[in-house]
Structures are given as structure tokens and as C-alpha cells.
UniProtKB/TrEMBL annotation:
Pathway: Isoprenoid biosynthesis; isopentenyl diphosphate biosynthesis via DXP pathway; isopentenyl diphosphate from 1-deoxy-D-xylulose 5-phosphate: step 3/6. This is 4-diphosphocytidyl-2-C-methyl-D-erythritol kinase. Keywords: ATP-binding, Isoprene biosynthesis, Kinase, Nucleotide-binding, Transferase. The lineage of its organism: Bacteria, Bacillati, Bacillota, Clostridia, Eubacteriales. The gene is ispE. Belongs to the GHMP kinase family. IspE subfamily. It comes from the Bacteria.
């Protein structure tokens, strides 16, 4: 009998880059939001190996997969000898700025912590998750949160209103590392006002949230792929209250007051070679 876990994607409502750290990462401050779009992971017992099967997308099931790396990391931390079989059904586009790999890693840590009876606390899981990727700590917590440091310091925020989102994924992926490496401070960088975003969320002010959308990494990825600017404009023309690139991109999302209005924005959007996904914010298990 397999045990099922959902790994929900995330969008960045803001992303600010504050400086370069001695460890080569960048100091960031960002408001992150879980969304309903998710991968599904089914866990069943195995003698001693970690065996992954993947459906839905062409992705390596080997030791470089973040599900494998999460299982291996937890197994050594929990002194566990048994293996596990994981069926991964991928829906979240890969290397898209939606944290799909990080979400799968976080779901694997939570699931196996429970299944193997290791019993680590959320903060202990977050310390482990940080070793797998900067967005894994947020994916462990989920909901609406402020993240600092590399992304490993996560603080829960009041839940966002039930916003709708139209995710527009262009037909290419972007490596997180290459975007951060190319980041340069300067007038082209649109930096968010995180305090104003937190206030808008706290006040359930949808237009305020839309006005506060900003991502410092947009200046890098839109220089690599200028079509992203046009996608942002097309989402507004289709009726979105605001639009922004998520994370290091290339996914751009349009924000709407609710799921129904996201569906009508998607219907009006002038699609070319992009993939469209309609979803909504997700706040509680
Ligand atoms: C997830 C992978 C592939 O498995 O992504 P890619 O490298 O292919 O993009 C990474 O290698 C897995 O390593 P890890 O470095 O933990 O991944 P992430 O946290 O996503 O960060 C990718 C890279 O972005 C840069 N980065 C990320 C976050 C941050 N606050 N500052 C940064 O400078 C770093 O160069 C980092 O190495
Ligand atoms: N289970 C997984 N799902 C998605 N990407 C994965 C997974 N395991 C490893 N990866 C690798 O992680 C990188 C990007 O992960 P992902 O979280 O999808 O990107 P992003 O953070 O931009 O949304 C890709 O290079 C991909 O090959």
C-alpha cells in the first residue's frame, strides 16, 4: 500500500538580492507563496535500495534526482537501513522558477521522516533541507512566508487571500545558478518593498499585493530572454491585476483576485509558444 504526498510548487511574490555572501550564494529577502499546482509522490517499502520511477516528464531517476538525494540524506541522518520505492508523477515544469525539484525534495523529507519514524522537528528538517537547495526550507514550511539568508531562514506570514494565478512557461528552461552568477546591482534592477508587500498581505489588499510584485532577478533573465517582458505585458492586457517572473524564471505569472478570473485571463491571453497553467494560492494542509 503506497503512501501519497503532494509536492506543491511556489511562486515568488517578491525577490530582493541584498548582496553576495562569502559562501558564493547571494543574500536574499523574498515573499514566497505555495500554489495548488503540484507533483505527486507515492512511497512504498523496499528492501535496501532507493528506487525512483518518474512519470509525466523526462527527468533522471538517478542519484542526482532531488528525491533520491533527500531520501539518502535522511537515511544517513536517521541511521535507517531500509530502502524505499518512490513513484514521482511530475506536473511542475522543470527548471522553471517554480521550485519543482525543491518541492519534491521537501515532500520526500517530510514523508520519510514520518514513514521511517525518525521524528525530526520542522526546524531539524529545514536544516537538512538547506543542504538540498535554497528553496527547500520554504517548500518544507509551505503557505505564505518571508525567506532570508540564502533562503533557509523562513518566517511564516499571514495567509494570502485566495488569489488566482496564470502561469506562463516559455519553451525553455533557465539554470538558477547562471542567473545569480549574471546578477549585477544597478539602476536596471527593480527591487521590491517587502514591508509594503507584507502589509498588503496582512490587509488582504489584492491590488496592493499586485502593485508590490517585484523580482530583482528579472533584470537578468529578461536580458537573456527579452520575450519575457512581452509575456508580462500580455498578461496585463488579458486582465491580470499584476504580473511577475517567479524566482530565477523563466515562468511569468499573472495575478487575479480568484481562480475564476484566472481562467478568464487565460482564455483571453494571446498565446504563442508558451505553456499556460491556471492555479491558485495554497495555504493550509
Ligand atoms: C538544483 C540544482 C541542480 O541540482 O540547480 P541548477 O544548478 O541545475 O540550477 C543545483 O545544482 C543544486 O544546488 P544548489 O546550489 O543547492 O541549488 P539552488 O539552491 O537551487 O541554487 C542554485 C545556484 O544558484 C545560486 N544561488 C542560489 C540561491 C541564492 N540565495 N544565491 C545564489 O547565488 C548558487 O550559485 C547556487 O549554487
Ligand atoms: N525531482 C526533480 N524535479 C525537478 N527538477 C529536479 C528534480 N531533481 C533534480 N532536479 C534538477 O533541479 C534543477 C531545477 O530544479 P527546479 O526546482 O525544477 O527548478 P526551479 O527551482 O527553477 O523551479 C534542474 O536542473 C533539474 O534537473
Amino acid at each position: 500500500m503506497a503512501i501519497k504526498f503532494l509536492a506543491r510548487a511556489k511562486v515568488n511574490l517578491t525577490l530582493d538580492v541584498l548582496g553576495k555572501r562569502p559562501d558564493g550564494y547571494h543574500e536574499v529577502e523574498m515573499v514566497m507563496q505555495s500554489v495548488e499546482l503540484h507533483d505527486t509522490l507515492e512511497f512504498s517499502p523496499a528492501e535496501k535500495d532507493i528506487v525512483i520511477t518518474i512519470e509525466g516528464m523526462d527527468l533522471s531517476p538517478g542519484a542526482d534526482n532531488l528525491v533520491y538525494r533527500a531520501a539518502e540524506l535522511l537515511r544517513s541522518r536517521g541511521c535507517v537501513r531500509s530502502g524505499v520505492k518512490v513513484r514521482l508523477i511530475k506536473n511542475i515544469p522543470v527548471a522553471a522558477g517554480l521550485g519543482g525539484g525543491s518541492a519534491d525534495a521537501a515532500a520526500t523529507l517530510k514523508a520519510l521522516n514520518q514513514i521511517w519514524g525518525i521524528g525530526l522537528s520542522m526546524s531539524e528538517l529545514i536544516v537538512l533541507g538547506e543542504q538540498l537547495g535554497a528553496d527547500v526550507p520554504f517548500c518544507l514550511l509551505g503557505g505564505t512566508a518571508l525567506a532570508r539568508g540564502k533562503g533557509e531562514q523562513v518566517f511564516r506570514l499571514p495567509p494570502c487571500p485566495p488569489l488566482g494565478l496564470v502561469l506562463v512557461k516559455p519553451p525553455f528552461s533557465v539554470s538558477t545558478g547562471s542567473v545569480y552568477q549574471a546578477f549585477r546591482f544597478g539602476p536596471a534592477v527593480e527591487r521590491p518593498d517587502n514591508q509594503a508587500m507584507v502589509e498588503a498581505i496582512r490587509a488582504n489588499n489584492i491590488l496592493g499585493i499586485a502593485r508590490c510584485l517585484a523580482n530583482a532577478l528579472e533584470s537578468v533573465t529578461t536580458r537573456m530572454h527579452p520575450e519575457l517582458t512581452r509575456i508580462k505585458e500580455k498578461l496585463i492586457e488579458a486582465g491580470a491585476a499584476g504580473s511577475l517572473m517567479s524566482g530565477s524564471g523563466p515562468t511569468v505569472f499573472g495575478l487575479t483576485p480568484d481562480l475564476a478570473s484566472a481562467r478568464s485571463v487565460a482564455a483571453r491571453y494571446k498565446k504563442t509558444d508558451e505553456k499556460l497553467l491556471v492555479t491558485s494560492v495554497f495555504n493550509t494542509e
